[in-house]
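Might you be able to review the protein record set out just below?
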Amino acid sequence: MMKISVRRLPLTAVLAATLLSAGCGAESRSAAGPAGERTLTIGAIPDQDPQKLQRLYSVVAERLGRDLGVRVRYRPVTDYTAAVTAFRVGDLDLVWFGGLTGVQARRQVDGARPLAQRDIDTKFRSVVIAGTRSGIAPFDTLQGLAALKGKRFTFGSQTSTSGRLMPQYFLGQAGVTPGDFRGSPGFSGAHDRTIELVEAGAFDAGALNEQVWRDRLQAGEVDRARVREVWRSPMYNDYQWVARPDLDSRLGDGFTDRARAALLALDGSDAEERKILDLFGAGRFVAVGERDHTEIVEAGRATGLLEK
């Protein structure tokens, strides 16, 4: 693949992210051109606290707006399915998807392109956490997942890669089905919410994104007397930036390649870049290809979350 360089504009001292009302989100406006001209709308699956996502994508919108010379708008969505739908109908141009939602989006929009992922996404994991009073002891083998039979269990979002798809896939390999839990499995809707529910005793155990679990531990936001990690999954390929196929026709020839190059150029060499990468929990972004999520497709078919 040909490496495309990006000419960076000087950084300003202040981030001019504007919070809009009723779902419009944060905007970044290029100095060249009036409002409404050459607009790139970005979005993301709502996998964490909306306030944290707003802070992150406000900064991302500001930086991409300057690097690409267009107006960039962040538009929040209500859930994972809404992110895929908004991408399919053209309300979102560039979206930070999970592995499963990214595959779903690419299947629904012919010609959609995966552009980049974090360095940590090439070797991502899920974790299973359990209440300290649940009777579930830590284990380190796939077969140990059988300890979850008869327990109250919650996933994250119904189409979360790390909070539902891969945990359910690995559970199936261990001979555990959702019908083996005590009652129907829950769906918390977000990784941090899964921690809260298990910590509160609403569920005996739950599955979530390893990055969110680690970040909450480091921030001192987990009551270790009530909840602990009991298992860490094998590695798989997860999150991805995906672009609609019409960006070049709308925003200029070569725009999609320039957007990819702008993401790959974020290496932490200045304070703004470090802030963006820290919020993403990454060292940098790396290239991602069409075939990098074959395991996600396999797991999706095995669990019935993707059509054959």
